[in-house]
Amino acid sequence: xxxxxxxxxxxxxxxxxxxxxxxxxxxxxxxxxxxxxxxxxxxxxxxxxxxxxxxxxxxxxxxxxxxxxxxxxxxxxxxxxxxxxxxxxxxxxxxxxxxxxxxxxxxxxxxxxxxxxxxxxxxxxxxxxxxxxxxxxxxxxxxxxxxxxxxxxxxxxxxxxxxxxxxxxxxxxxxxxxxxxxxxxxxxxxxxxxxxxxxxxxxxx
Length: 205
What we know:
Order of helices and strands: HEHEHEHHHHEEE
Low-confidence stretches: 185-198
Largest sheet: 6 strands, mixed
Shape: globular
Number of strands: 6
Mean pLDDT: 87
Structural class: alpha/beta
Distance between the termini: 36 Å
């Protein structure tokens, strides 16, 4: 049963949405965007993928199949006009852990193909040693790479250029609830970050 104290807020949502941010994160059940951010219904537009991957922009739209992830990003930026995009990775990520450990994913071919297609063989995340169970260093490198990839989306590039869109790289610890951010998120990360052996600089929000 709906809480009558929120009736007016829910009625307003029926008229449309105007979220403040696009929140891109992993499908992992331990990651709850509204809990992490304190957002209420209508405040976040969400995109969840295995390993919080941002696929490359489909430049050959006529020869490639439609891409739901790209459509979600484009809609959030061009139609909804979000002012911020957050890419949030998390500790103990199964997808990133599989990449850095070189796990055999033959029993889950769709997962294997998704990661092989989405994460380049020379991506920084693949060169980070899985020193700790939380694979924090690798996850943070991976998050930065996804933020960098967003710059290839025309809609994102245009909005960054006119100063109306800001990108953010976050790291969430599932075992503590702590959120840290990479500062600054700037044009210097537009290419794949070269962070092998060096932990990216993430700190308090």
